[in-house]
Amino acid sequence: MLRVSQVFGPAVQGEGPAAGRHCLFVRTFGCNLECSWCDTAYTWAVTDHKAAKTRSGVKYDRDDPALGQKLMSAQDVLASLGALWDVERRPTIIVVSGGEPMMQQRELVPLVEQLAGWGAEIHVETAGTIAPWAAFDRHIAQYTVSPKLANSSNPLSKRRKPEVLAAFRETGRAWLKCVIEPDYERDLEEVDDLVQEVGFPPSRVMVMPEGSDSHSTLMTARAMADAALQRGYGLSLRTHVLLWGDDPSR
Ligand code: SF4
């Protein structure tokens, strides 16, 4: 069974190289990292210990009917998607996000296999600490890999896995997307080191401001835009945040 937090859409992909495109989301439950600024902490901050890792300190309810953990088969998820959109007749992008979806790639195979068979484009959003397996990978059209920087407060040994990032690079279907805080110079230098270490082409790197409201998101984006472009990186805004703030159903 899959551990799922949300199935929602139709939505606009707000981040990364597919920003602006029509999609539906399958958000898995559970994560192997603990980012202090995580905007989906409801998928993992369900104990006192984990809640203390977040900036807000909020402890979420694992059994919350809207955002908590649901145990679902691939058929259950397909039915939930089908209630939102006729994926079989009108294929679109299905974004498999989290949490950390790569923790459940074995369980995800039947789901992505069926969706890809219908012509859906499967996009995966991951923090890049778990390498893709062939049985899963063959159905994936795009990975948006978001390695976490020091600003996430995760220890380096947990958040940086060069050999895993290299495996994603080798698929030829991966983009790097790094979250940048207002003190952007320090973060951009860390991205430079990472890109060089892993050998990712700068043209497949995007930087994105951290922020859960349109004002702070745009302020950081404006501040760092020129410095990012000079490095050859793309700039991802957070379209859903600009449109709808931090509404988790958008
Ligand atoms: S890796 Fe993603 S889901 Fe996990 S804690 Fe960090 S931002 Fe949140």
| Low-pLDDT segments, ≥5 res | none
- How many domains in all? 1
User: Which range best describes the helical content: under 10%, 10-25%, 25-40%, 40-55%, 55-70% or over 70%?
Assistant: 25-40%
CATH topology value: TIM Barrel
Oligomer: single chain
- In CATH terms, what is the architecture? Alpha-Beta Barrel
Specify the CATH homologous superfamily. Answer: Aldolase class I
CATH class: Alpha Beta
Give an overview in words.
By secondary structure, the protein is α/β, with parallel strands linked by helices. Helices cover 34% and strands 20% of the residues. The chain is built from nine helices and nine strands. Strands 3-1-2-4-5-6-7-8-9 form a nine-stranded mixed β-sheet. α2 packs across α3. It is globular, with a radius of gyration of 17 Å. The protein starts with a strand and ends in a 6-residue tail after the last helix. The model has no long low-confidence stretch (mean pLDDT 96). The site of iron/sulfur cluster has 12 residues, from loops.
Break the fold down into its secondary structure elements and pairings.
Layout: E1 2-12, E2 22-28, H1 48-51, E3 70-72, H2 74-84, E4 93-97, H3 105-117, E5 121-126, H4 134-137, E6 142-145, H5 156-159, H6 162-171, E7 174-180, H7 184-198, E8 205-209, H8 214-230, E9 234-235, H9 239-244
Parallel strand pairs: 2-4, 4-5, 5-6, 6-7, 7-8, 8-9
Antiparallel strand pairs: 1-2, 1-3
Iron/sulfur cluster binds next to loops.
